[in-house]
Write a structure and sequence with these properties.
By secondary structure, this protein is mainly alpha-helical. Helices cover 78% and strands 3% of the residues. The protein has 23 helices and four strands. Strands 1-2 form a two-stranded antiparallel ribbon. A two-stranded antiparallel sheet has the order 3-4. α7 crosses α9 and α16 crosses α17 (304-315). The chain is elongated and about 105 Å long. The two termini are 16 Å apart.
Length: 422
């Protein structure tokens, strides 16, 4: 077999490899590394701010770095925002989400935990506020106070959960909560793509080889007709670019089903909506909109001061209820200022005390089932257009990088073929 024939026959194999490597590495570029890896260069951020918008969009550039960060994790905040705008907002208001978490069961869980620990809380507060008085009280009086607190505890806990439910729209910003958690853990953004679009991403890689192989056949005849050295590298540029472009289009286009003869054509990601909705719902319910995250947002989020004030107000009468008919005598014995100080201390400490049980992982998993069902149902109800926008909007502005990446690899592969086979 002549070297000329070998050169011709290996062109489709090389173009197939171009297609596969282009798409395989393109998928890696989408998701990895999760955090920026490269070099920070002083003054680069200022220069990039003056550069064209496309340059500014390259991950790491606006922060003054040369290197790379996966496109999806670098857009984690945008991913969180889009997750809310396209899907989570369709679940309902914060009040609807809170209702799905079953406030009655939340109250029961808080109560079950609180009943174990409330005695220690009372002891700690009294020892801190007036240890001499507390130790001077007869044991039966202290026991009576503990018993009274235990008796009043259910109504106090339900008062808190009811108050949260009534004011949840003012206390909780779901969009900010989701953005914060996805931005803090960019692997969540990756998982939304990798688990929801697993089959499509595998298709992109495999499609690259077969489509590149197919495009390599006409390249045999083109290189014979135009034997200049630059023809094959230029063909590699076109093959790398077109392979990536077509793979991206096949995943998302057409949005609506189209009949072509006996076949129905629709974007690969779009037509898997029912199956992918379940995967997406599991991620949202297990890792994003959880009872623990809602509790953290209520106590530590941007509106936490409102939550704390509301709970403190709801629990303000706790001391009055605990001492019952002896209120006047106890108030006189302690003095109005000390009595009120103990009441305020109880209310403040009870804020974290009532929210801590929400971090119980077993209880979180049990309550997440309702959110999972709700998210999956609403996701399946999305229009094909909204469904396609859900993930594509995150990466669409960066698709040119993937296309450029394919073109550069194609050019390099063409040069390698020339170097090996002439």
């Amino acid at each position: 077999m002549s070297s000329q024939l070998i050169r011709m026959l290996t062109i489709p194999l090389f173009t197939g490899v171009i297609g596969y490597v282009t798409n395989w590495s393109g998928v890696l570029m989408l998701f990895y590394p999760v955090k920026f890896r490269g070099w920070r260069i002083p003054g680069l951020a200022l220069l990039v701010s003056l550069a064209p918008r496309k340059i500014q969009e390259i991950p790491g550039m606006m922060h003054g770095g040369i290197g790379w960060q996966g496109i999806v994790p670098s857009r984690a905040a945008k991913m969180g925002s889009l997750a809310v705008d396209t899907t989570i907002s369709k679940i309902g208001s914060p009040a609807d989400i809170y209702e799905q978490l079953e406030p009655e069961k939340i109250a029961e869980h808080i109560l079950a935990t609180a009943q174990r620990d409330i005695r220690l809380v009372v002891e700690r507060i009294m020892e801190r506020e007036d240890p001499q008085l507390w130790r001077s009280l007869p044991q039966f009086v202290r026991d009576a106070i503990h018993a009274r607190v235990q008796q009043q505890l259910p109504s106090m806990v339900r008062s808190v959960t009811d108050q949260i439910g009534e004011n949840i729209d003012q206390l909780l910003d779901v969009k900010l909560m989701v953005i914060r958690h996805i931005e803090a853990d960019p692997t969540l953004a990756n998982r939304m793509f990798l688990e929801v679009g697993k089959k499509e991403l595998r298709f992109i890689q495999n499609f690259g080889f077969f489509f590149g192989l197919l495009l390599g056949v006409p390249m045999i005849f083109i290189t014979r007709a135009f034997p200049q050295w630059w023809v094959l590298p230029l063909g590699g540029v076109i093959i790398g670019y077109v392979t990536n472009l077509l793979a991206l289009r096949m995943i998302y286009v057409p949005v609506e089903p189209r009949k072509i003869g006996p076949f129905t054509i629709q974007g690969l990601f779009i037509r898997r909506q029912p199956e992918a909705a379940e995967v997406y719902a599991k991620i949202i319910a297990d890792d994003v909109i959880t009872l623990q995250h809602i509790g953290d947002e209520l106590l530590h989020g941007p509106r936490s001061d409102r939550t704390r004030l509301m709970i403190e107000t709801a629990l303000g009468p706790a001391v009055d209820q605990a001492v019952g008919r002896s209120r006047s005598l106890v108030r006189a014995a302690l003095g109005p200022r000390q009595y009120d100080a103990i009441g305020a201390s109880v209310a403040i400490e009870a804020v974290d005390f009532t929210m801590t049980p929400l971090k119980d992982p077993v209880f979180n998993n049990r309550q997440s089932a309702k959110i999972h069902t709700l998210v999956a149902t609403r996701m399946r109800e999305l229009s094909p257009k909204d469904w396609s926008l859900m993930l594509r909007n995150v990466t669409e502005q960066d698709e040119w990088l993937l296309l450029l990446h394919g073109a550069v690899l194609g050019f390099g592969a063409g040069l390698i073929h020339l170097a090996v086979f002439g």
